């Protein structure tokens, strides 16, 4: 089972109000230089929020929601410190309620 860390907020906030393009470009460049596989994704209307264990998070998050998901806890922690008005947490996949985190990325 893989642990994924997330930062969730409204789509408007993450996709329009915050200049995340620059952050992602720098991160992609850094990963390419290190020959590291990309381990973060920006997902609109993330399916993992539908899991019963995340009902409280879904209730607190403005809709439509968006999330940045990563297997790197430090990256999500860094983003949380940089951004305001976001929710963070973690989930394990696959599980009984979250079959495959990467599949939820495709469905979003």
3D structure, described in words:
With 108 residues, the chain is α+β, with helices and mostly antiparallel strands. It has one domain (2-107): Alpha-Beta Plaits (2-Layer Sandwich). 41% of the residues lie in helices and 25% in strands. It has five helices and four strands. It has helices at 11-17, 20-33, 55-60, 73-82, 101-107, and strands spanning 2-10, 40-44, 65-70, 87-93. It has a four-stranded antiparallel beta sheet. The radius of gyration is 13 Å and the shape is globular. The mean pLDDT is 85. Belongs to the ycf54 family. This is DUF2488 family protein.
CATH architecture: 2-Layer Sandwich
* Overall spatial form: globular
Q: Assign the CATH superfamily.
A: Uncharacterised protein family Ycf54
What is the strand arrangement across the widest sheet? 2-3-1-4
Low-confidence stretches: none
Family: Belongs to the ycf54 family.
Pfam families: Ycf54
Protein name: DUF2488 family protein
Organism: Prochlorothrix hollandica PCC 9006 = CALU 1027
Topology readout:
Elements: E1 2-10, H1 11-17, H2 20-33, E2 40-44, H3 55-60, E3 65-70, H4 73-82, E4 87-93, H5 101-107
Antiparallel strand pairs: 1-3, 1-4, 2-3
Organism: Prochlorothrix hollandica PCC 9006 = CALU 1027
Protein name: DUF2488 family protein
Family: Belongs to the ycf54 family.
